[in-house]
Write a structure and sequence with these properties.
By secondary structure, the chain is mainly α. Helices cover 91% and strands 0% of the residues. The radius of gyration is 57 Å and the shape is rod-shaped.
Length: 189
């Protein structure tokens, strides 16, 4: 009987020990589970942060691409404007060249016209006088005619000088436009 009692006591003690061990194990398991949950949450947070960073990087790249496209468009517009300016300058140069050619023609024709006018006046002076009337004719007025001829040719000479001055001014303007064209071409290159 005593043995049985002892055995029972031992069994009870063993059971108590087992229960204690189980409790300890359960507590540790719970702690481990909590730690694992915390680690998982941290990993999830890290993944979310990484995703947000990737999204931000993508947005920044898109913004950079848009800025680059805008810069390219602006450059193209500037190039087009410069080309238009060049075309306008070329047209102006052509017009100035035409004006210069016309002025040269006028300058070449004016002396010829003056010569023709002088020749006509000289011919008129050298023509024989009409048949004299009964009274004796007065002597031919050569000097006054020559003076009149000179007075008539003075406006033409002044016009000739003015055309020369205009031609010089147009040449200067043409040179300036050529310099501007060269500068624009250098800027484009």
């Amino acid at each position: 009987m005593l043995l049985l009692l002892l055995l029972l006591l031992l069994l009870r003690l063993l059971l108590l020990l087992l229960l204690l061990l189980l409790r300890l194990l359960l507590r540790r398991l719970l702690l481990l589970l909590l730690l694992l949950l915390q680690l998982l949450l941290l990993l999830l947070l890290l993944l979310l942060l990484l995703l947000l960073q990737l999204l931000l990087l993508l947005l920044l790249l898109l913004l950079l691409l848009l800025l680059l496209l805008l810069l390219l468009l602006l450059l193209l517009l500037l190039l087009l404007l410069l080309l238009l300016l060049l075309l306008l300058l070329l047209l102006l140069l052509l017009l100035l060249l035409l004006l210069l050619l016309l002025l040269l023609l006028l300058l070449l024709l004016l002396p010829l016209l003056l010569l023709l006018l002088l020749l006509l006046l000289l011919l008129l002076l050298l023509l024989p006088p009409p048949p004299p009337p009964p009274p004796p004719p007065p002597p031919p007025l050569i000097l006054p005619c020559l003076l009149l001829l000179l007075l008539l040719s003075l406006p033409l000479l002044l016009l000739f000088l003015l055309l020369l001055l205009l031609l010089l001014l147009l040449l200067l303007l043409l040179l300036l436009l050529l310099l501007l064209l060269l500068l624009l071409l250098l800027l484009l290159l």
